[in-house]
Write a sequence for this structure.
């Protein structure tokens, strides 16, 4: 599905937003990305930040096959998300969905920014920081330093050792990469059977490309459980107050 008004325009930054997950861990019949967040679908809140960021030229949204038409009508059209140039079908895993999204990125695009559709509190400031960092570094991810103690355990749950947390970070999105780098990384993952990727930076690292990490935001939570949704609704109500 294509927004013809933007298809032929050159783009420097394309945001790929994977949102093909289900509501299994949420315990909901409705997919988590479509749950209500203060009167808006959660996914619409996420997309709105990229719509408003002047450094993002295009958005490619990746959803489950059965949700494509719904997203076009109830998300893209309803909330005037004019930068969304494609709404395409995802795969079984997030990794598959991102790969599908990358295939839809125009070759004229220089940078691909990838962000989880269920992280609705990403700020325009963080998006801009990631894009700006890409001018100096080939690949950039966001994250937060770990503040809790970290232990390694065995299969019976017994502690084997304590791990120094000073060099450990929790990874977030957005992440940004050169288009050719991330495209090649996903193609190599498919070829080599790299199925353990929990984020896209991992695949780029496997290609031998160094990834720069910049500090993310504590409020940039990923909504995957009902508890996460409660926190998200609390945060949203505070923003509206």
């Amino acid at each position: 599905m294509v927004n013809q008004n933007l298809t032929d325009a050159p783009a420097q930054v394309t945001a790929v937003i994977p949102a093909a997950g289900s509501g299994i861990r949420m315990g909901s019949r409705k997919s988590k990305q479509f749950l209500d967040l203060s009167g808006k679908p959660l996914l619409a809140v996420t997309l709105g930040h990229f719509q408003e960021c002047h450094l993002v030229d295009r958005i490619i949204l990746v959803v489950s096959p059965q949700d494509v038409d719904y997203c076009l009508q109830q998300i893209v059209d309803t909330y005037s998300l004019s930068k969304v140039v494609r709404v395409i079908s995802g795969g079984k895993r997030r990794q598959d969905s991102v790969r599908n999204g990358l295939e839809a990125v125009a070759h004229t695009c220089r940078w691909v920014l990838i962000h989880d559709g269920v992280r609705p509190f990403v700020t325009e400031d963080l998006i801009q920081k990631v894009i700006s960092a890409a001018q100096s570094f080939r690949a950039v991810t966001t994250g937060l330093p770990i503040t809790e103690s970290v232990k390694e355990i065995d299969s019976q749950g017994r502690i084997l050792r304590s791990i120094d947390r000073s060099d450990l970070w929790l990874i977030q999105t957005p992440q940004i990469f050169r288009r050719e780098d991330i495209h090649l990384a996903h193609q190599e993952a498919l070829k080599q059977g790299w199925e353990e990727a929990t984020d896209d930076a991992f695949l780029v690292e496997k290609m031998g490309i160094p990834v720069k990490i910049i500090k993310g935001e504590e409020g940039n939570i990923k909504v995957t459980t009902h508890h996460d949704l409660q926190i998200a609704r609390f945060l949203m109500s505070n923003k509206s107050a």
Observations:
- Residues 13-240 form a domain with the Spore Coat Polysaccharide Biosynthesis Protein SpsA; Chain A fold (CATH 3.90.550.10).
- The mean pLDDT is 92.
- The first helix runs from residue 42 to 52.
